[in-house]
Amino acid sequence: xxxxxxxxxxxxxxxxxxxxxxxxxxxxxxxxxxxxxxxxxxxxxxxxxxxxxxxxxxxxxxxxxxxxxxxxxxxxxxxxxxxxxxxxxxxxxxxxxxxxxxxxxxxxxxxxxxxxxxxxxxxxxxxxxxxxxxxxxxxxxxxxxxxxxxxxxxxxxxxxxxxxxxxxxxxxxxxxxxxxx
Length: 181
Known about the structure:
Layout: H1 2-22, H2 32-49, H3 54-73, H4 82-105, H5 110-116, H6 120-135, H7 138-151, H8 156-176
Helix pairs in contact: 1-2, 1-4, 1-6, 2-3, 3-4, 3-8, 4-6
């Protein structure tokens, strides 16, 4: 249980860091408000993490991240979608890259790594680090900002429809590929 809570904190900090990288506006890390939101997010992620259903976790994570993003950056809900969806996508890509490195190069699967070494804490540190590095690529930030600007021109129904397509596509892909965390 402690390992799961520490993993939730690692992922929440990484997600917040990615949001700060991808957003034009920045939040203050040392403010009591940010620390409180980060702590609450970590607790909620932990509570979601103990549910074994991967699709439920992904959809709930996305909804929670959109709400947290809205309050952290003080934006309208429609402008609060891009950061969370991009950060979830970067984490998914990072997880896939880590799985490829483990399986192809090291000839080891993730469950063996988690059982024999440091478990999900190590895995989440590596996946979070890869996601943060990806978020620092200028093209990623440029695309995120461009999409966020385009969202301002869309109506809410179109945004919800596109979000549902993104979440279900990532959910389906996540379920059909071997997972590591």
